[in-house]
Automatic annotation (TrEMBL):
It comes from the Eukaryota. Signal peptide: none annotated. It is found in: Membrane. The gene is LOC105177563. The chain crosses the membrane at residues 47-66, 72-97, 122-142, 174-191, 203-224, 244-263, 284-303, 332-349, 369-389, 395-417, 429-449. This is Sodium-coupled neutral amino acid transporter 5-like. GO terms for molecular function: L-amino acid transmembrane transporter activity. It is a multi-pass membrane protein. Residues 21-33 have a biased composition (Basic and acidic residues). GO terms for cellular component: organelle membrane. Residues 45-449 form the Amino acid transporter transmembrane domain. PANTHER family: AMINO ACID TRANSPORTER, AMINO ACID TRANSPORTER AVT6A. It comes from Sesamum indicum.
Amino acid sequence: MTIGSLKSTKERKSRKSKQPIVDEKSPLLPTKHEDEGGFDEFNGASFSGAVFNLSTTIVGAGIMALPATMKVLGLILGFAVIIFMAFLTEASIDFLLRFSRASKSGSYGSLMGDAFGKYGRMLIQLCVIVNNVGVLIVYMIIIGDVLSGTSSGGIHHAGVLESWFGEQWWNGRFFVLLVTTLAIFAPLASLKRIDSLRYTSALSVALAVVFLVVTVGITLFKLINGTVVMPRLLPVVTDLPSLLNLFTVVPVLVTAYICHYNVHSIDNELEDDTQMKAVVRTSMVLCSSVYIMTSLFGFLLFGDATLDDVLANFSTDLGIPFGSLLNDVVRVSYAAHLMLVFPVVFYPLRLNLDGLLFPSARPLALDNLRFASISIGLLGIVFLGANFIPSIWDAFQFTGATAAVLIGFIFPAAITLRDRYGIATKLDRIVSIFMIVLAVFSNVIAIYSDAYALFKNGPSRSA
């Protein structure tokens, strides 16, 4: 089963009008499965379920690094870049959907295979694997920071469990992440259809809103009391290194909007696939609003003391009534949000790794041994990565500067420029060229700036 092996048998007007098809090379579960001669009906995902799943894919850990980007860019330029990236992301997803309809491709991989052959399909699979492993490691790092604490610049930021019970052997990072993996991630990762995660996705969005509402409330309280310092509106550029440093936020922002690897899975399960563009637009508006609010109020609240992972800032004294309780509410709500986002990102990771390793095998959902083996192996890799990579900024810059920018912009633009079906407009080609030039230029600069800072200042500080 691969990301690139499912193709629609005809252009779809509505999921309701299609007869269920079981293709043994399909990367998706069949909408019906045999069970002692009977069938279990699945009539398609709802609009709201699709929005929740796509929004959950987008609003993951990237939101926690956005206030730190405001520290680099300033509020005005920071907001402009967040909005610009949202429009650019929507355009790239629109390219994928249009060319998927034209080529009758049911996945990102099959679309890349249609445009660039077998090696194109394998390349996108590899990129999704690298990107999603990096993202899931970030999730675990943040959960570990929240529950077990972290150190930055010689200062220890206590975790929630450490604050409640003191330093114990069982609330150390390794043991907490081990229990979280076995008790939460493993059961949720065992679900075989992405629409089965719609309720956990809805809850995860609600938890992200709780985090945002509490953060806004704390900031407004401190604004009224006059204890918030005026934030920097524009970046401070004094020399060439400080100018190049502005580009280090690009990989973080790219990673924050990457959802392309789940677009086809959600589209394929949508009851009426003519709604997919509306699903994407609704998700972009929702997520951009959350990003802007979080960036604004997070940076207002902590200013230049904002850490790479802003959740770590909520271990300090906020100087307000019930500050300790609100700190815990913010951190626990977002850690729970990430726990529920984890399986949504894990789903395409498992499919793509299976497709890369076993391109001719029967569907993964029908092979329990292979399904369990790949799931356990991936969970183990992510768990080990989270215990050895110290900072989410490091992980974001690596995945954002490599796989994420290919998945989100370069591949959709390349498919559009390839234009096998003659449906690309002149504007499409202009936007595609702009995407590629911007992605390559900004990420080369970001990688150079990171390398310069690494050799000059030593390894990145832990968030």
